[in-house]
């Protein structure tokens, strides 16, 4: 008789353990957050919402580590210095006046380059 009681108790403990594990599994699956596709957000064309900016390509900070800087004289008294995140190709000429759209990117400045903010430059045109 004692053997049957132990067997019943053991069976109930096993069932309780299985139900607990299943409940935890369902809980963790239901609490999983939805992942947003990063590719979908970065592929949006930001240039449609951007304003054309005018600037001058400069190499004067090359000794400090900045290969190319675009100097933008804004309507305010502040001057904006942009570091192109990608090469400017045929527009990488010192003193060249260009118009473009830009989007600030969160990357580190090149080593030794403390002048400017990294930006993705697009829709470049000579002036």
Structure description:
The protein is of the alpha+beta class. It folds into 2 domains: 2-39; 51-126, OB fold (Dihydrolipoamide Acetyltransferase, E2P) (Beta Barrel), CATH 2.40.50. Helix content is 28%, strand content 28%. It contains 2 helices and 5 strands. The chain has helices spanning 2-31, 38-42; strands spanning 53-58, 69-73, 79-84, 97-104, 117-126. The protein has a 5-stranded mixed barrel.
CATH topology of the largest domain: OB fold (Dihydrolipoamide Acetyltransferase, E2P)
**Cα-atom Rg, whole angstroms?**
30 Å
Strand content: 25-35%
Major beta sheet, specifics? 5 strands, mixed, barrel
The DSSP helix count reads: 2
Uncertain residue ranges: 36-48
Gap between N and C termini, in Å? Answer: 99 Å
Number of strands: 5
Instruction: Look at the structure and give the CATH class of the largest domain.
Output: Mainly Beta
CATH architectural name of the largest domain: Beta Barrel
H/E element sequence: HHEEEEE
Structural class: alpha+beta
Q: What value does the average pLDDT take? A: 78
Oligomer: single chain
Helix content estimate: 25-40%
Number of domains: 2
Sum up the overall morphology in one term: rod-shaped
Q: Can you give keywords for this protein?
A:
OB fold (Dihydrolipoamide Acetyltransferase, E2P), single chain, 2 helices, about 130 residues, 2 domains, alpha+beta
